[in-house]
Amino acid sequence: MGGVRVRAMEPADHQSVLALIAADLLPGQPAPDAYLLAAPARDGLAKTSTLVLTDTHDVVQGVMHCASRPSDGAGLIGWIHGHEDFDALAALIATSRAHLGPTRTLFAGTGPTQTPETVPFALPGIAEHRRPATSRALQAAGFTPATSRRYFHHPLTPTPTAPVFPMAELRPLADPPGVQVILMETDGTELATAVLHIGDGDHWLLWHLAVRADRRHRGIGSHMLAQCLHTAHTRGASSVIAHTDEDDATSIGLLTSGGFTSVDTLTVYHRRP
Fold first, then answer.
1. Which helix (H) or strand (E) holds 139?
2. Cβ pair 99, 51 in contact under 8 A
3. Burial of 87: CB neighbours in 10 Å, binned 0-12, 13-18, 19+
4. Binning pLDDT at 50, 70 and 90, where does residue 259 land?
5. What value does the mean pLDDT take over residues 211-216?
6. Which of 112, 125, 171, 256 measures 20 to 30 Å from 70, CA to CA?
């Protein structure tokens, strides 16, 4: 790509970088804000840097965020965006490899390096269907899939039906903010639990849902899912997202029967030295 260069991100680039990230969001993911570009890295990471790709007029065309992990020496490409322009993405990936060093195992699509409680919706992985050029550029650079998760979305319009009986207990969560949903047996023991995290107010994340092993396959999971959707709606959410292992047929079936749509597959890639 003649005339382009990669340099460190500057404050004047922030709006362009946020627009690049927003262009790749999946349904239900909150829009990024300036905190994403300025927050300190979470514990256990070092040498974090954000690099931008610019054209001959110094207009930002792509961005990536890199870090190293001292615990095992791995290099991380946390996020990478470039308008799905294969050449721009390939240039960023080549720069990241040189920046992180040729002797490291590299992972790509590992997500933001900020502390998890500030970005609970920043799920790791590159969306395979929405971002095919990014996936192709990574594979062309020698990266292969390491892990994959299915991403689901449920708009809360029309209004979800309120569960009739029994109603679950709701406990507020502060770090990250959200709600724990607990369904009790008549003797006070836990029958099922779920955790919902609040994103930007409009979009919530179903992080966890589990039914006690001896009470599964009785419709309790479906009831809990309905409780979660109703709870999110009554507290102002316009949609709920969820994710699960690519081969978790039980969870996929529960989410699908509960009205969730499978939107994409999020894949983390890796490359050996």
1. helix 132-140
2. yes
3. middle
4. very high
5. 84
6. 125
pLDDT of residue 257: 95
Task: Output the CA angle 241-246-250, nearest 5 degrees.
Answer: 80
Q: CB-based contacts of 58: which residues, under 8 Å, 6+ apart? A: none
C-alpha atoms less than 13 angstroms from C-alpha of 8 in its C-beta half-sphere: 5
Cα separations (Å) of 149 from 110, 125, 145, 248? Answer: 12, 8, 11, 9
Residue 165 confidence (pLDDT)? 64
Pairing of strands 144-155, 239-245: antiparallel
DSSP for 151-195, written as a single string: EEEEE--SPPPPP-SPPPEEEEEETTEEEEEEEE-TTS-EEEEEE
* pLDDT tens, position by position, 55-80: 999 999 999 999 999 888 999 999 99
CA 187 to chain centre: 38
